[in-house]
Amino acid sequence: FVGELSNEKGVPTLLRAYESLGRRRPPLVLVGRRTPDTPTQFPDGAEVHLGWPHEHVLAAFRSCLFAVLPSVVPDACPTTVLEAMASGRPVVTTSVGGIVDMIVDGESGLLVPPGDARELAAAMSRVLVDGDLRARLGVGAQEKVRAFTASVVAERLEAVYARIAPRPRRVDRHRGSRNGQPTMTEAS
């Protein structure tokens, strides 16, 4: 997990889901910053790291089994989801906000309802026990994240602007003039 250690980012839900996985669960690494609602107690196996430099966060994504980003608020474009995807890791996350545009459920990650610890635990368990699923979701994540690179996004925005922007007007010198001025016509 990477993000604010808060209710909005789904940390209490994540901790309940993690505890329900039982004793044979891998370590849960939480990287972020404390907020006024950061839990004070963490289950056995949970490691909390505060204030990591960005390069350490990216290295953690590259070495994890999967990322869990269970936000309960509708973030428009959560960067941590994109960073985990770019690292080739499956993402277990919630079907809220811009996340639903980033993750295709079952192809580039797994989506669960926000705030649902039972569904989150089930998705985490699936990814933990199924190495083929982890590999397939990781590859799908790397493919899907390409649609969110700066060059691709800029190209799509330019295409939208080209469709909705008014066409420039040009002078049509062949049609005559009014009051000594060339007549303006729409460009074709």
Helical run tally: 7
Question: Which sheet architecture does the biggest sheet show?
Answer: 3 strands, parallel
Give the overall shape.
Answer: elongated
Radius of gyration from the alpha-carbon trace, in angstroms: 24 Å
β-strand amount: 15-25%
Overall mean pLDDT stands at: 89
Spatial strand order of the main sheet: 1-2-3
Number of separate strands: 8
Q: Give the H and E element order.
A: EHEEHEHEHEHHHEE
Classification by helices and strands: alpha/beta
Ends apart, CA distance between termini: 53 Å
Helix content: 25-40%
Describe the secondary-structure layout:
Elements: E1 2-5, H1 11-19, E2 28-34, E3 46-50, H2 54-63, E4 67-69, H3 79-86, E5 91-94, H4 99-102, E6 110-112, H5 117-129, H6 131-145, H7 150-164, E7 169-178, E8 181-186
Parallel strand pairs: 1-2, 2-3, 4-5, 5-6
Antiparallel strand pairs: 7-8
Helix pairs in contact: 1-5, 3-6
What do you see in this structure?
With 188 residues, this protein is an alpha/beta fold. 39% of the residues lie in helices and 22% in strands. It contains 7 helices and 8 strands; from the N terminus they run βαββαβαβαβαααββ. Strands 1-2-3 form a 3-stranded parallel sheet, with helices on one face. It has a 3-stranded parallel sheet with strand order 4-5-6, with helices on both faces. A two-stranded antiparallel ribbon has the order 7-8. Helix 3 (79-86) links the parallel strand 4 (67-69) and strand 5 (91-94). Helix 1 crosses helix 5 (117-129). The longest helix is centred in the C-terminal third of the chain and has 15 residues, at 131-145. The chain is elongated, with a radius of gyration of 24 Å. The termini are far apart. The model has no long low-confidence stretch (mean pLDDT 89).
